[in-house]
Amino acid sequence: MKQTTLHGKILGEQITKKMDRKAKIREYKETPRMMGVYQIKNKMNGKVLIGSSVNLPAILNRYKSELKTGGCRNAALQNEWNESGPWLSLLNPGV
User: Fold this and answer.
1) Is 73 helix (H, G, I), strand (E, B) or coil?
2) What count of other Cβ atoms lies within 10 Å of the Cβ of residue 37?
3) What order do you get walking across the sheet with 36-41 strand by strand?
4) R_g of the chain computed on alpha carbons
5) To the nearest whole number, what is the mean pLDDT of the chain?
6) Is pTM beyond 0.85 here?
7) Which of 52, 58, 50, 51 is nearest to 31 (CA)?
8) How confident is the model over 31-43, as a mean pLDDT?
9) CA-to-CA distance for 34 and 53, rounded, in angstroms?
10) What ranges do the domains of the chain cover?
């Protein structure tokens, strides 16, 4: 009898966790993302890249990650990064 109760309790906790997880996923998907125009500026030579995105935090995170790993999709930007060193703090949303 105790095993059934214990198993039922564990199963109930798992179901509750799964429901909480689904609610959190739904909440995340429904959260509006900051969208707009951004600029990436090279402080060393003054060059800027201006772009727009429907998800600013994601695009800036992508550039940051790609530049650090040397795999930026924008070859000119990657070359600037390699030549001038890390100036990542100059990623500015909202030109």
Assistant:
1) coil
2) 12
3) 48-53, 36-41, 91-93
4) 22
5) 80
6) no
7) 58
8) 86
9) 9
10) 1-31, 36-93
- Find the mean pLDDT for residues 60-77: 92
CATH architecture group of domain 36-93: 3-Layer(aba) Sandwich (3.40)
Do the strands 36-41 and 91-93 form a parallel or antiparallel pair, or are they unpaired?
antiparallel
Instruction: Find tokens 């689904």 and name the residue.
Output: 22
Reported as a single tens digit per residue, the pLDDT across 19-33 is: 788 888 898 888 888
| Stretch 78-91: mean pLDDT | 74
Identify the three-state secondary structure at position 82: helix
pLDDT for the residue numbered 5: 61
Up-side HSE of residue 90: CA atoms within 13 Å toward CB?
17
The helix-helix angle for 56-69 and 75-84 (nearest 10°) equals 60
